[in-house]
Amino acid sequence: MFLVAIPLSLGIAVASGAPVAAGLIAAIVGGIVAGLIGGTPLQVSGPAAGLTVIVAQLVQTYGWRATCTITLLGGLLQLALGASRVARTALAVSPAVVHGMLAGVGVVLVLAQVHVLLGGSPQQSPLANLRELPGQLAGPQAHPALLGALTIAVLVGWARYGGRAARLVPAPLPAIAVTTLAAWALGWSAPRVDLPDALLSGWGPPVVPHGPLPGVVGAVVLIALVASVESLLCSVAIDRTRPPGVPRADLDRELIGQGAGNTVSGFLGGLPIAGVIVRSSANVQAGARTRWSSVLHGCWVLVLALSCGPLIERVPLSALAALLVVLGVRMLDTARLRDLRHHREATAYIATLIGVVVLGLGEGVLLGIGVMAVLALRRLTRLRVRAERLAALPDDGPLPARWHVVVEGSLTFLGVPRVMGVLEDVPAGASVDLDLNVDFMDHAAFDAIHQWKRGHERQGGRVDIDEIHEAWYERAVTGDMSPVRKTPLQSRWWAPWANRRRKSEFPVDLPDASALLLDGVREYHGSTARLVRPIMAELAMEQKPEHLFITCVDSRVVPNIITASGPGDLFINRNVGNLVPRYESTPHDDSVAATVEYAINVLDIRTITVCGHSNCGAMAALLAGGTEVEHLEGLSRWIRHGHHTLARYLESDPTDEAPITRLCKINVMQQLDNLLTYPWLRERVESGEIELVGLYLDLQTANVHVLDRSTGTFGPVPDEARPV
């Protein structure tokens, strides 16, 4: 961390227009104070590139000493926020705005530091830097430009070709070291770091900023909020990658630590500090396990600042500028932009970026928050309305036609014109099935639909309102608007097609199976695909299921529903009767054995479940001696694998259960025994490597029962509370 912090701290101080020593002071305080007090053990704090633009503006407006006072006051505000335990509310700021802000800061850094890299001086604003850039590129100073180019070359080459050394020593250190040695060896003239004789030379008490009070207060709040949000987002990211044994992040304590660090840094004349993702990630990758890694890196910076001043003063400013140019380019993070595009939040990212560059950091962030608010409002009021004219059914009488209208989304006053435009196109006297699949309905929407319904019925029509998601309309009609506790199952994807399509949807000639299937696919694309897309993207190249699940092909058995599992959880084998052919059985069939082999030897699955169900057609065929399916040659051969189940049933004692129920349960037990006939599987079961589980689904009650193999009986699944 010490090797990473030195060049970045110097570069950020230069880019901020602050004394070079201010960067070192911030690195020392960030390591020792924030490291000791903060709530994220492996996070490393120090001067952050994301605060560079703010500090530069404050230095230009109030002067450096007053900027230190603003930093101190921002730290006190952070302490108050941390003590109020509101740290998590800072995470309500959209990542699109945060990353757009960082990208904007990156652009501002690049535009300013390119001038320094080429031997010039940065202008007062990013737009001025952009206007002057062509002239600077046309007439660069040779030595600073070559040293800057050498720094970039070493940075890129070290990361790509450094091998093991690159993992041990971060690229900024060799880049600065090589450039400094080259400048000294060649005797090139270039502006260099100007370090005071003593780290705290010229220190004085805090100076009150001179200017309008609202501007000063706004600066304090801006420093506190930006530093807090950046630190907390870094804490969350590092907490996700922490090694085993490292405590979870305490965000409120982390905010207190950051506040204490900024208070001390501002008092001593240092830059504002924040948690820095680059240094923190390097800390984790280097093997850190406790907060002492951050504390000791601050101690090393202190030792270097006190003992190696002449060495630091040989560093060319163009080398530090090149380092910041590379850092600024990396802050653009195009991969993040691609992720935001998938979630349709790229607009806020781009708006924030442009706002930071053109208007300033505070204004740019406010612009991004405004754009996100508009996007959120649009999503909250998103509405889909579709209508379909259906052929009349025989029992419809003289009605001219049947219409099916579906309204999906949030139904507010903003969507009323669209809904009424569709409803008013329905001919008078028609019979209408109106499906309201809405998660919210305000009074304006209810009143519009209710008045249309009454008017349509007065003209001889019929209106049947079916609320699929929640009974907003019915509750408004009855006057019962008390809060309703929502159940976890808010969508309809698990319901059969027949339940999701009222019979009035179908013409006299029912649609063929392909039409139903494609309609289901369209519904999946419209409502479910976007929800599962991130999960499927993670699973696209590799599957890691937890269980092998052998069950029947019966359409009423849906493994993912009865196990509350999702994509990638179950490796499923389905066959008629959930049968497992015995080892070297006749007729020979390797389909189930192949599945088991692959699950165990390739996917490393450790649990095999056989799940039967009530009223199984295969078991009914067994009870009838196979006479019902003897005209189906393939099925008749397959059913023979159930003869051991039938024999076991005949040898068992009768119970109060229906014969078919008893046979279905015995079949589960027999198939588990059939698995043990495979020698290579039996060895692993007996050694405890593989666990066998039996389940039975009662279709009538939708309850699942688990087999107790010691007693040979099925009972309810134990109701055990999950550990918190």
Description:
The chain has 724 residues and is an alpha/beta fold. The protein folds into 3 domains: 2-331, no CATH class; 383-483 and 490-510, 2-Layer Sandwich (Transcription Regulator spoIIAA); 543-716, Carbonic anhydrase (Beta-carbonic Anhydrase, Chain A), CATH 3.40.1050. The protein is built from 30 helices and 12 strands. A hairpin with a 4-residue loop joins strand 10 (691-698) and strand 11. Helix 1 (2-16) packs across helix 2, helix 2 packs antiparallel against helix 11 (251-268) and helix 5 (95-117) packs parallel to helix 6 (126-138). The two termini are 35 Å apart. The model is unreliable at 485-491 and 502-511 (pLDDT under 50).
Query: What's the β-strand tally?
Result: 12
* Class based on secondary structure composition and strand pairing: alpha/beta
Can you give the mean pLDDT?
Answer: 83
Strand content: 5-15%
Number of domains: 3
Number of helices: 30
> What overall geometry do the principal axes of the alpha carbons give?
globular
Unreliable parts: 485-491, 502-511
The percent range for helix content is 40-55%
